[in-house]
């Protein structure tokens, strides 16, 4: 009988120890879990005591001076979506902000000189993230011109030269395109939307749906999100700290001082030409991405400007 009592006592002790260990593990696990709760002031400011923050939409918003109807439920929801997608894609947004200091001054200047609202710089961000990218469909450069459209608006596109990759010239061509679209549609919001869908495609949607207002149109997923992606870039760039981006001056990429060299004759070997001008092939390609080959043919009466550090 005594033996049985000892076994029972040992069993109870073991159970107690197991229960104690279980409670300790559960307690520590609960402490390790991140909290997503936040007070109302933190939510309205776009900050949080935890890793995730809620952002209040702006009270009002415009694109190129035209009001965005945030009082319409689906409009505010679509903007909300793009703000969260871009604010929480931190690596992409940080790099875009860093990159912006190299290229936005040139884009802003050319837009202003040609009467295009400054907000269209955010369209370039939506198109290419300020990089000379190439799309599967064949669009190229910061402004994503297709070959035929680029030529229509004055860009040279050959085997050794593709000015869709030329920041100044492609931005100037973009202003011509945007002006033409504004004559057609009469408002800048429709101009931005048609840049994604094409002027003809956007006009057809307006006609079929008996509405001229972008915000009243039922569009495909890409164009439906496109305008709000542009607006999200504007909202975040105009108030970066609210969305957790606190870049200091030294964080931004800078364009180095460049010298311009006019070229009137053929260059048979760009590497040799670069060496003759106290530079290298890498710099020629980095700062002149419109040069698409390792040589340059210059037609009679034509000249080019190559910039290098």
TrEMBL record:
Belongs to the transglycosylase Slt family. Residues 117-210 form the Transglycosylase SLT domain. Gene3D superfamilies: 1.10.530.10. The chain crosses the membrane at residues 7-25. InterPro entries: Lysozyme-like_dom_sf, Transglycosylase_SLT_dom_1. Keywords: Membrane, Transmembrane, Transmembrane helix. Signal peptide: none annotated. This is Lytic transglycosylase domain-containing protein. It holds the Pfam family SLT. Coiled coil: none annotated.
